[in-house]
Amino acid sequence: MRICVIGLGQMGGNMALTLQAAGFDVTGSDLFDSARQRLADKGLSVVAPDELPPSDVYLLSLPTSAQVREVIETAPGLLGLAPKGSVIVDTSTSDPVVSRELAAKVEAAGLAWLDAPVSGGPKGAATGKLGMLLGGETATIERLAPMLEAMSARYTHVGGPGSGHVVKLANNYLCAAHLLTTAEAVAMAARAGVDPAACLAGLNSGSGRSAVSEVNFPEWILSGRFDSGFTTGLMRKDLRLARAAAERLDMPPGLLQAVVEAWHADPEHPADGDDFNRIAGARLAAATPAEESAS
């Protein structure tokens, strides 16, 4: 299986190296010379965007739907370059409306489509332990099963084109909400004189636990590392996409708007370029000192 990975950032670059290590014929491409050189130095075959080779799979790892659209539609574009029968796989967190529009054009051009947004960060991409949410045809997923198995610890087919991106937005909304609520809960405990690590141990033994309390807090927040590889700007973008999707569906008012507003309330703290876990770190740091605990 010949795979061309387009977008060689922390996620795309690590996915490309993982697939190459698994025995696939992988070529990488990126708009930036520095990204191509970084992966070439690690042994990956790289080409410029105007030199994409004929491939069985074009795997996209790009920041937004705008870049996905550009790669697919803008001349020369994959609609004109990709061999008939090849598959375009979008692992970005994209706008489901755009994904469904692009999927229709891809299929009309004799190609196949799969949206496959991922979770697990750069570490998951580097170790082949990603979680993947798949939107597309069952036959396409079966055809790509060896590639998907090499990339992921688990992949879940959630529906037709665009469905993967819908569920990914739902997932990121919950993650964003959990960062806020878990930070408040841990801060409350800290004000009462409870050590944050002890509080988390208690939460993780009960029904309030989440991936945020079990993974993010010990891994990136309490440790002070804040190097998950996912930025605040990307989370803010995903929340805006989730809000737009809810509005298009005429969803009744809920907590989503409050979460979106909380993440956008102070654009500099954290800044878009900061690790997204910093929003919880900042709230936890603002907790009242233990000596002011309730008595």
List keywords for this structure.
295 residues, Rossmann fold, N-(1-d-carboxylethyl)-l-norvaline Dehydrogenase, domain 2, nine-stranded mixed β-sheet, 9 strands, 51% helix, globular
CATH architecture classification name of the largest domain:
3-Layer(aba) Sandwich
Structural Rg: 20 Å
Total individual domains: 2
CATH superfamily membership of the largest domain: NAD(P)-binding Rossmann-like Domain
- The shape, in one word, is globular
Largest sheet: 9 strands, mixed
**Beta-strand percentage range:** 5-15%
Q: Helix count? A: 14
Protein name: NAD(P)-dependent oxidoreductase
Active site: 168
InterPro entries: 6-PGluconate_DH-like_C_sf (IPR008927), 6PGD_dom2 (IPR013328), 6PGDH_NADP-bd (IPR006115), HIBADH-like_NADP-bd (IPR029154), HIBADH-related (IPR015815), NAD(P)-bd_dom_sf (IPR036291)
Domain 6-phosphogluconate dehydrogenase NADP-binding: 2-159
Structural commentary:
The chain has helices spanning 10-21, 33-40, 65-73, 77-81, 96-108, 121-127, 138-143, 145-151, 163-191, 196-203, 211-221, 232-248, 256-264, 278-285; strands spanning 2-6, 25-29, 45-47, 57-60, 87-90, 112-115, 118-119, 130-136, 152-159. It contains 14 helices and nine strands. Helices cover 51% and strands 14% of the residues. The chain has two domains: 2-160, Rossmann fold (3-Layer(aba) Sandwich); 166-292, N-(1-d-carboxylethyl)-l-norvaline Dehydrogenase, domain 2 (Orthogonal Bundle), CATH 1.10.1040. It is globular and about 65 Å long. Strands 1, 2, 3, 4, 5, 6, 7, 8 and 9 form a nine-stranded mixed beta sheet that branches. Helix 1 runs parallel beside helix 6 (121-127), helix 9 crosses helix 11 (211-221) and helix 9 (163-191) runs parallel beside helix 14. It has 295 residues and is α/β, with parallel strands linked by helices.
